């Protein structure tokens, strides 16, 4: 006669009460509203007619919404002797080229410093940490002399190549690789016959996807919003941000176009951030690994 198996019902024990979940949700919602408020106000300003832009105190709503500010902006851009498409091309080229080079070099150098034992590694990283103390203003004269000696002044390379050497990106990637890449996994790949480059590309980079996605967002946003540069003088090589700042520098009469230009300039970085942010969250949730 078959014996009947005895089962035991277990109750699910929650770590916190329903009231705690509701409280946390409410707090996060409040913080989310405050973080979204500047973006909302910027968009509202761009939709206001000229007379509503100067109300005091400022209003967080628009009575008579209009798209005239955007049409004025594009009309002003169309009157420039350099085509509007050229400014867009310059900005995209500099942003994409600088971001790609920064990602590749920072990842390669970070992998060497974090996972390859070689003489002087700690000294190199010490120099990288100290370089974070210096701003671009401090090193501006040295950079200008260097770029002038190699003949890169007034070229795209004067903006793109220095962006490749961002030590902040290198520091960020090294910290991610040290904390997220298991040394045992890399050793297993080497024992299986994978070259160092193959190990870096197929093993290390997928494991630090949140790190290089964060680097892409940071680097792209900085290059996209770069304005006037002391290394570029030709009008046909300048970026969209610089062109818009020149066109909208006409005082009160162009206040509406200025508000519209702010919205236009923030659209692309926001899209890059939203796309990358969703991937960062997904990767962090699914890439956990135990030694």
Q: What can be said about this structure in brief?
A:
The protein is mainly α and 291 residues long. The chain has helices spanning 18-46, 68-78, 84-115, 121-131, 140-149, 157-164, 167-180, 183-191, 196-207, 209-224, 240-247, 255-286.
Report on the structure:
- The protein contains twelve helices and no strands.
- It has helices at residues 18-46, 68-78, 84-115, 121-131, 140-149, 157-164, 167-180, 183-191, 196-207, 209-224, 240-247, 255-286.
- The two termini are 47 Å apart.
- Residues 286-291 have low confidence and may be disordered.
Shape: globular
Between the first and last Cα atoms, what is the distance in angstroms?
47 Å
State the share of residues found in helices, binned by percent: 55-70%
**Count of individual helical segments:** 12
Please state the CA-atom Rg, rounded to the nearest Å: 26 Å
Task: Provide the fold topology.
Layout: H1 18-46, H2 68-78, H3 84-115, H4 121-131, H5 140-149, H6 157-164, H7 167-180, H8 183-191, H9 196-207, H10 209-224, H11 240-247, H12 255-286
Helix pairs in contact: 1-12, 2-12, 3-6, 3-7, 3-10, 4-7, 7-10, 8-9, 10-12
Describe this protein with a few key phrases.
single chain, 291 residues, mainly alpha, globular, disordered C terminus
